[in-house]
Amino acid sequence: MKKKILFLFALFPILSIAEPLGLPKLPVPSDNPQTPEKIALGDRLFNDIRFSSTGKVSCATCHAPDKAFTDSPLPVSVGINNLTGTRNAPTVLNAAYNQTQFWDGRSPDLEDQAQHPFLNPVEMGLATHQPILKVIAKDKKYQKAFRKVFGVSSKKITMEHVLKAIAAFERTQISGNSPFDHYYFSGKENALNAQEKRGFEVFLNEGRCVSCHTIEQDNALFTDHKFHNIGIGVNELGEKIEPLAKSFLVAKSKGADVDIAVLTQPNTSHLGRFAVNNQLSDLGGFKTPTLRNIALTAPYMHDGSLQTLRDVVVHYNNGGALDKNQPITPYLSGGIRPLNLSEQQIDDLVSFMESLTSPEIKNQTKTTNQEHGS
Ligand code: HEC
Ligand code: HEC
Fold first, then answer.
1. Relative to the CA of 295, which of 71, 117, 159, 249 has its CA 20 to 30 Å away?
2. What PROSITE patterns does this protein map onto (predicted)?
3. Is 221 in contact with 24 (CB distance < 8 Å)?
4. pLDDT at residue 144 above 70?
5. pLDDT-derived band of residue 140, with 50, 70 and 90 as boundaries?
6. Residue nearest to atom 6 of ligand 1 (CA)
């Protein structure tokens, strides 16, 4: 029995590593198993600036390891030739657990997601994936790595291999083990201070944050993987939203590329999940994002329109608007309504969110943006 287990560990060294405290079992697709060589190859591809039309932008430009895999403090991402997109770069940390990728869930998994930025005109700006395969075909180190990982000669390397390696690398970027995890999952009373504990109570009760940013019995991803309209972007659009939605459907029926449309047209971006599934009930709906390492990734929301965690809580406290007097969209999700939190409770909630930072991510983060609070 013992011998058999040792044998299995030797065969699957990566799989035998336990997930950090607070995270569920890592889902790995059966047709793309994790191996150390594949992960190293994916790391190199993720950082290769030659895979952009200007030779200056890589995945890591917008998902920088020293910025918790975002481009904080930019509100929206900047790609080739300083072109700006419409959306705030979500972290790649723990994206391996997402049931869909992108703010609007238009991509099913990491392998599929990775093909899009190369071709987006405001991201890496290539017309086709061919130039990527050309760079690889001329690079001896890449050829050797692809042969070792996938058993293919340089002529047989395809985008499918490239995307699989990138996804395998991304699956190693998982982070838990925060003060909150020690408090909640290991029962270490002192892992949170009094203010953070009060904030946790608000998160669970008066704030009702946990109804969307969910916590399970033995792990927490802080997302229900669903889409909700919480009043970001859509409030400003007001009555323009219906004609906008209608004209987008027409453009889509004529073949408009959804990935390009939502990242190049700010108003179209605010249509959210609707742009993907054409459901009016999803107008302005966005995927509930994780809250892990949130203190490191300001500004916030799909359009980067809220500067601080305090602004975020005030937005919720007002029932879906930072400015109390702003008219709120009729498409707002049922779960969003005024909370009547006190100033103290608002501060406490911010403190609680700051306890969701993983120590190793904090250590590798260059602090250009100041942390808030205490
Ligand atoms: C120019 C900046 C930029 C570049 C380059 C870029 N991304 Fe992103 N990334 C973004 C933005 C912005 C989004 C959100 C877009 C959306 O939701 O519509 C995003 C979304 C993602 C997501 C989804 C995360 C989630 O929580 O849904 C993943 C994963 C990701 N990018 C990985 C990559 C990979 C892999 C590459 C390289 C092949 C890459 N990105 C290149 C800016 C960038
Ligand atoms: C009805 C579901 C729902 C509830 C309730 C909810 N959220 Fe959210 N949260 C979301 C969605 C959806 C987004 C993204 C919205 C967007 O970008 O348009 C979000 C975004 C955030 C963000 C920004 C994340 C980022 O990466 O930019 C923070 C922080 C946040 N919520 C904290 C909270 C707190 C604190 C509460 C409780 C006061 C709360 N949320 C209640 C669904 C919810």
1. 117
2. CYTC (PS51007)
3. yes
4. yes
5. very high
6. 59
Question: Please, which residues bridge with residue 64 across strands?
Answer: 70
**Spatial contact of 206 and 291, defined as CB atoms under 8 Å apart:** no
Q: Which two tokens stand for residue 311?
A: 């602004």
Helix 36-46 vs helix 159-170: crossing angle, to nearest 10: 100
d(CA 235, CA 225): 23
87 lines ligand 1 (CB under 6 A): yes
Among candidate residues 170, 273, 292, the one with its CA nearest the CA of residue 222: 292
Task: Report whether 17 contacts 165 (CB < 8 A).
Answer: no
212 phi and psi angles, rounded to 5 deg: -110, -40
Q: Which pTM does this prediction carry?
A: 0.94
Q: Is the Cβ atom of 207 under 6 angstroms away from ligand 1?
A: no
Burial of 50 (0-12, 13-18, 19+ CB in 10 A): middle
- pLDDT tens figures, 165-190: 999 999 999 999 999 999 999 999 99
23 CA distance to ligand 2 middle (Å) = 20
Could you give the domains of the chain?
Answer: 2-170 (1.10.760.10)
Backbone torsion region of residue 125, taken as left when φ is above 0, otherwise alpha when ψ lies between -120 and 50, otherwise beta: left
For ligand 2, the distance from its centroid to the CA atom of residue 288, given in whole angstroms, is: 6
With bands split at pLDDT 50, 70 and 90, how would you rate the model's confidence at 18?
Answer: confident
End-to-end CA distance of the chain: 52
277-282: which pairs have CB atoms within 8 A and are 24 or more residues apart? 278/249, 278/252, 280/245, 282/227, 282/229
Distance CA 311, CA 300 (A): 9
Q: How far apart are CA 128 and CA 121, in angstroms?
A: 11
Residue 161, marked binder? no
250 CA to centre of ligand 1 in angstroms: 27
Helix (H, G, I), strand (E, B) or coil at 78: strand
For residue 103, give every residue at least 6 positions away whose Cβ sits within 8 Å of its Cβ, in sequence order, or none: 87, 90, 272, 286, 287, 289, 302
- The ligand whose atoms approach the alpha carbon of 231 most closely is 2
